[in-house]
Design a protein that fits this description.
The protein folds into 2 domains: about 140 residues, Rossmann fold, CATH 3.40.50.720; about 160 residues, Dihydrodipicolinate Reductase, domain 2, CATH 3.30.360.10. The protein has 10 helices and 14 strands. The strands form 2 sheets. It has an 8-stranded mixed β-sheet, covered by helices on one side. Strand 5, helix 5 and strand 6 form a beta-alpha-beta unit.
């Protein structure tokens, strides 16, 4: 039996999340054909560790014709142009979140996906977290009854954020909501449904952890689904006692995913809280494996361009609320 072919892969953006993508491709047995990064030191380090042709420009990498698939791991302001160029070149795209920093750019990417028919997957990695998969199966199977409440808090301390592009609204498109709550928005849609009411409050203030920022360092989004389920989405870069939890409460029971100890606990009506057995698995490695399967024609994206566009629209509405 002939082994399935491996794609030629390019990584655009080799710092931060780009390092995670590089190691996740490696875990799937694939070394990059090409890597692009605007920072010479970051680029040199990535190529030394993983191999591949070095490019100072993502657009030059795309134009080289050397790759079949690309992970876009740059700051958000560059996502749209890189995605459109890749799609037009027939290169499949796995784009990190958020899809874009404006609704107009997000829609431009969506139109290009539709026009070209090129493979596109949105980097909503939590859809591949085994505990979230198990939680979704419980919800879809009716084990928790009718869902009434959803609470998600992704919060901790991002040290020296004021010295990074994360605090630059022109590059990041926002603060902690754009960086972190975009995942929370997607999780609400994935587990509960599309919201019909969107409200939000944000804040940034000087403290012993750092100065006030030009973007929000803390935020809360409140959502209501068409079925009446309520969602509270909390995020912060300035709360050192962090919490990374997803909790869902329904008429038949409750379940909580805790990323701190990678557990899923559930309690059905009249029962006791108990751990739910969940198989091991790294969400980024599994996301890459699924993307490869899509390229081979064995699967379709779990997080589509439509999901990326919907989350961007909800984020925009939250900022405007």
């Amino acid at each position: 039996m002939t082994a399935a072919p491996n794609p030629r892969v390019g990584i655009i953006g080799a710092g931060g999340i780009g390092k995670t993508h590089l190691s996740s491709w490696a875990a799937n047995g694939i070394a990059p054909t090409a890597i692009a990064d605007a920072n010479p030191d970051t680029l040199a380090s990535a190529v030394a560790e993983h191999g591949g042709q070095a490019y100072a420009s993502g657009l030059d990498l795309i134009a080289s014709g050397a790759v079949d698939l690309i992970s876009i791991c740059t700051p958000p302001a560059f996502h749209a142009d890189l995605a459109v160029a890749s799609l037009d070149a027939g290169i499949g795209v796995l784009c990190e979140k958020p899809l874009a920093t404006t609704i107009g750019d997000a829609e431009r990417v969506a139109r290009t996906v539709e026009r070209t028919g090129t493979l596109f997957a949105m980097g909503f990695c939590h859809r591949y977290q085994p505990h979230i998969e198990a939680l979704k199966a419980m919800i879809d199977g009716g084990e928790l009854g009718v869902i009434r409440e959803f609470r998600n808090r992704f919060a901790g301390h991002l040290a020296s954020v004021e010295q990074t592009w994360f605090s630059n609204p022109e590059i990041a498109g926002g603060g902690v909501l754009a960086d972190t709550s975009i995942h929370s928005i997607d999780l609400f849609r994935y587990l509960v449904g599309d919201p019909v009411h969107i409200h939000a409050l944000t804040s940034s203030c000087e403290s012993g952890l750092g100065p006030s920022l030009d973007v929000e360092d803390t935020g809360t989004i409140i959502l209501k689904s068409s079925e009446g389920a309520l969602g509270v989405l909390e995020s912060s870069w300035r709360t050192p006692v962090g919490e990374w939890v997803v909790a869902v409460h329904g008429t038949g029971g409750s379940a909580i995913v805790d990323y701190a100890d990678l557990t899923l606990r559930a309690c059905t009506k009249g029962g006791d809280w108990a751990d739910v057995a969940v198989p091991d698995g790294d969400r980024f490695v599994r996301e890459i494996a699924a993307f490869i399967a899509c390229w081979r024609g064995e699967d379709t994206p779990r997080a589509t361009i439509g999901d990326g566009l919907a989350a961007t629209r909800i984020l925009d509405a939250a900022y405007r609320a």
